[in-house]
Amino acid sequence: VQLQASGGGLVQAGGSLSISCVVTGLSSSDYGVGWFRQAPGKEREFVASASWSGATIYYADFAKGRFTISRDNAKNTVYLQMNSLKSEDTAVYYCNARTSGLNYWGQGTLVTVSS
């Protein structure tokens, strides 16, 4: 199982950025996906998650109204659209896939928000 995240980069505060993650190698066709982030010196924290159908979506409080998670199952890809970015959003963003009680992680993509 591989999760390949991409799209990170440098963006000014108030700007937008979209990151994506391609999931390959999962035999199950029914898995949840999510995004987590880890800022320097801090623990990894939950950002957003979506069920297989996309009907059930959760956001961390800081992400509500600014971030949008979506998925394209035909492309095995999950996206995170981030708007109104703040300096405190600077972190490595990790994608996650979960099925049958197992969690899989990607390598992360760095998002840097300059103030």
- Principal-axes geometry comes out as globular
The percentage helix is under 10%
Q: How much is the average pLDDT?
A: 95
Class of secondary structure makeup:
mainly beta
Can you offer a commentary on this structure?
- The structure is a single chain.
- With 115 residues, the chain is mainly beta.
- The protein has strands at 2-6, 9-12, 17-24, 32-38, 45-50, 57-59, 67-72, 77-82, 91-99, 102-105, 109-114.
- Strand 4 (32-38) and strand 5 (45-50) form a beta hairpin.
- It is globular.
- The termini are far apart.
Summarize the structure.
The protein has 115 residues and is mostly beta strands. The chain has strands at 2-6, 9-12, 17-24, 32-38, 45-50, 57-59, 67-72, 77-82, 91-99, 102-105, 109-114.
What's the layout of helices and strands?
Blueprint: E1 2-6, E2 9-12, E3 17-24, E4 32-38, E5 45-50, E6 57-59, E7 67-72, E8 77-82, E9 91-99, E10 102-105, E11 109-114
Parallel strand pairs: 2-11
Antiparallel strand pairs: 1-3, 3-8, 4-5, 4-9, 5-6, 7-8, 9-10, 9-11
List keywords for this structure.
globular; single chain; mainly beta; four-stranded antiparallel beta sheet; 115 residues
